[in-house]
Amino acid sequence: MSPVRFVGPLESAALLTILPVPARAAGSTRGVLPWAPLVGLALGGVAAGVAVLGDRWISPLAGAVLAVAVLAVLTRGLHLDGLADTADGLGPLRDRERALQVMHQGDVGPFGVVTLVLTLLLQVACLAALLETRWGWLALCASVAVARLAMARTGLPGVPAAEGSSLGALVAGTVSVRWLAGWAVVLLALLGAATSADLTAAGPLAAAALAGLLAAEVLYRRARARLGGVTGDVMGAMGETATAATLLVAAAVV
Question: Per UniProt, which keywords does this protein have (predicted)?
Answer without folding.
Answer: Cell membrane, Cobalamin biosynthesis, Magnesium, Membrane, Transferase, Transmembrane, Transmembrane helix
